[in-house]
Amino acid sequence: MSDTSRAACVIGWPAGHSRSPLIHNYWIKQHGIEGEYRREAVPPEAFEDFVRNLASKGYVGANVTLPHKEAALALSEPDDRAEAVGAANTLWFDGKTLHATNTDVEGFVENLNASCRSWDRGLDSALVLGAGGAARAVVYALVQRGVERIHVANRTLARAEEFRERFGKGINPVRWEEASGLLGVADLLVNTTSLGMTGQGDIELPLDHLQPSAVVADIVYTPLETKLLAAARERGLRTADGLGMLLHQAVHGFELWFGVRPEVTPELRALVEADLRKDVRK
Ligand code: NDP
């Protein structure tokens, strides 16, 4: 690589499943940038050393994926959203300082903006299924958007209760079994659990209890259309899918590393969809 060339990477363990190289290398080529985006499989015990040597390895920044999103916080200067969410997925250098943010937050919101116009108009109450790492980014995004009541239903109630401590009294932690009783009051339903993923079982909820104006978002993207989204579409509800969030969360990192704000286009979406379908056929 030449002196003007820039490199970024995704750091994960494993890292083979990540679609980030496909997305970022597509944009690198599209914008004629001299650069490269690589995949780095780094086990937890080697993560700190890897991050401390990120610049000497020639990287201007990185994405961080499972299981390193929390460890990345302690090794960087996190911004408010990474701090609030308690996890970082994007690292970049400003001079010698390594900064961190969490772009799942804007990925979730920008995907809703793109998929369901005015989705947040009159949005008072949301029902979020799940209380894992991705749910923290989703709930933080909704709190920032001013949603007053966010019901968080989780199989392990204690994890949902932690959300109230983290995000304040607008959060109503509820048992998993209580979710169906809240559908009638939810303007937005979001699945952040791993249910709906290929081989993981499905969300079984009576979607006919939702109001006709309700929006349904699922952040799972394998399969591309989960049973939850298919049922919502069949009911005529507006939906936002997980692949859209994945593509939109990549935008800010690319801009930080390569200095150009890229676009999520139908062509990029088709490229990643085709790649995801290859996995389904395996
Ligand atoms: P975590 O492991 O942190 O959380 C998993 C969540 O799913 C927990 O709330 C867990 O409940 C719940 N869950 C798992 N199995 C079941 C079950 N059988 N019944 C009920 N609840 C269950 O995972 P993440 O938050 O990191 O990821 C969750 C999903 O989001 C994954 O499918 C991931 O691929 C996707 N994702 C998508 C992104 C995108 O850009 N589209 C970004 C990040 C994640 P409990 O607490 O009880 O264990």
Q: What does this 3D model show about the protein?
A:
The chain is an alpha/beta fold. It has two domains: 6-102 and 246-281, 3-Layer(aba) Sandwich (Rossmann fold); 106-240, Rossmann fold (3-Layer(aba) Sandwich). It contains ten helices and twelve strands. The strands form two sheets. The protein has a six-stranded mixed β-sheet with strand order 2-1-3-5-6-4. Strands 9-8-7-10-11-12 form a six-stranded parallel β-sheet, sandwiched between helices. Strand 11 (215-218), helix 8 (227-234) and strand 12 (238-240) form a beta-alpha-beta unit. The two termini are 34 Å apart. The site of NADPH dihydro-nicotinamide-adenine-dinucleotide phosphate has 25 residues, from helix 5, helix 6 and helix 9.
Order of helices and strands: EHEHEHEHEEHEHEHEEEHEHH
Q: In the CATH classification, which architecture of the largest domain applies?
A: 3-Layer(aba) Sandwich
The span between the termini is: 34 Å
Beta-strand portion reads 15-25%
CATH C-level class of the largest domain is: Alpha Beta
Question: Total helix count?
Answer: 10
CATH fold-level assignment of the largest domain = Rossmann fold
Total strands: 12
Residues in helix, %? 25-40%
Structural domain count: 2
Shape: globular
> What would the average pLDDT be, to the nearest integer?
96
The biggest sheet amounts to: 6 strands, mixed
Ligand inventory reads: NADPH dihydro-nicotinamide-adenine-dinucleotide phosphate
Extract low-pLDDT stretches: none
- What oligomeric state best describes the polypeptide chains here? single chain
Q: Mind telling me the CATH superfamily name of the largest domain? A: NAD(P)-binding Rossmann-like Domain
